[in-house]
Amino acid sequence: PDGAGIEVDGLDLALPGRGRTLAQGLRFGVREGGALLVSGPNACGKSLLGAVLLGLDPLGSGRPLPVRVPGLAGGAARPPLAVLMPSTQRVYLPPGNLGDQLCYPGRYRAPDPGSDRAPGSGAQEWVNTDRSLDGTGREEDMERALDVTGIAYLKKRDPSGLLFVCNWGEILSGGEQQRLGFARLLFRRPRFALLDECTSMV
């Protein structure tokens, strides 16, 4: 249906303040369920294009660009993560437990004492602090994401499982961090994913 995809119509990519044009008149569209490969040499503007799609205005234009992304209606500056979520070469791993890494920017915690989802029922919950997301995630979905990306062993490193807390940026290799970032993407299941060298160390 109309408006269901990402559309770029006549976008010029130029580095602000450098007078260097990287691309002119870019036109393409990606529908939900489709794919688009952007390839080229280093510094040709691939990551710059990704930043434009994410609504970061890296061109410094300060004016509307010929880019249409679902979820930008009503003057929103950036598309919600439920619509477009990036997975990049460098993965941000916030302080917190293993579940937090999958839920980011949401948080994962044990249910409140006395709730019908109390520990012992084998269920946990994740707390959505990102208003752009709706729905709920379940522990089995997290485990599936870890398994598919080959890092299910992280949950077994400590008896607390998904509640295991450590400095993830220090104990995980670059490849493990990228796998965890991709597991986050699989768990969150956005309509579109923007992949920028997200498996370069795997």
TrEMBL record:
Entry keywords, A to Z: Membrane, Transmembrane, Transmembrane helix, Transport
Entries under InterPro entries matching the protein: ABC_transporter-like_ATP-bd, ABC_transporter_sub-D, P-loop_NTPase
GO molecular function, one term: ATP binding
Sequence ranges assigned to domain ABC transporter in this UniProt record: 141-200
A Pfam family per the record: ABC_tran
Region (Disordered): 108-139
Highest taxon above the source species: Eukaryota
Keyword Cell inner membrane appears in the UniProt entry: no
Family: Belongs to the ABC transporter superfamily. ABCD family. Peroxisomal fatty acyl CoA transporter (TC 3.A.1.203) subfamily.
Protein name: ABC transporter domain-containing protein
Species name: Alexandrium catenella
